[in-house]
Amino acid sequence: MLPKIKKFIMENKKIVILVSIILLAIILLLVLYKSLFYSNAEKAVYGDRLRDIKKNEYTKEDRVETYNKVSEMEGVSEAKIFVKGRLIKFYVTFNDGLSADDIKNKFNEMLTFIEEDVKGYYDVTFYAVQTAEGKTKYPVIGYKQKGRELISFDTF
User: Fold this and answer.
1) Cβ atoms of residues 112 and 146 within 8 Å
2) Domain coordinates of the chain in residue numbers?
């Protein structure tokens, strides 16, 4: 079998070289395509936007401290804090009877529980949940963009 392959290669050198070059070019193009259009798993969601997150990290200890302060606030029955990338999300369940303005004031107070350098690095989102007469409603949603001082509110 090996002598037949050698004989074929010797008789068709130009075609074998041409096919080899085409195969190498296709492999090279596939590798380039993958590296350009499909990023690595650790960069897939945020790219290089999180490269300096260690300098301004919102640690688990900070989250627990903030959670404790929020949970102790009057009118708050439950709180959850999540961090994903450069976003801090507050899900706060308020007692029935608080107005939208009261909830906005509570959110502004919660924002003071976060350190200034962290507020300047992360976006912060607030979601209010209230249960009245067996129905769950979301009366206020707040958003603070990194680098901004004030929370923008949507009231429903």
Assistant:
1) no
2) 2-38, 53-155
Going by C-alpha positions, the residue among 93, 80, 91 that lies closest to residue 131 is 93
Q: Which CATH architecture has domain 53-155?
A: 2-Layer Sandwich (3.30)
Q: Tokens 């075609």 map to which residue?
A: 15
The candidate with the shortest Cα–Cα distance to 51, out of 61, 59, 39, 43, is 43
User: Above pLDDT 70, what percent of the chain?
Assistant: 94
Q: In this structure, what token pair is assigned to residue 21?
A: 């070059």
DSSP conformational letter for 122 = S
Query: Average pLDDT over the chain, rounded to whole?
Result: 88
Give residue-wise pLDDT tens across range 112-151: 999 998 998 999 999 999 987 778 888 999 999 988 889 9
Assessment of whether the complete model's pTM goes beyond 0.85: no
Q: Is 95 left (phi over 0), alpha (psi -120 to 50) or beta?
A: beta
* Cβ atoms 110, 91 nearer than 8 A: no
| Token pair belonging to 34 | 């993958």
Can you tell me the distance from the alpha carbon of 27 to that of 33, in angstroms, rounded to the nearest whole number?
10
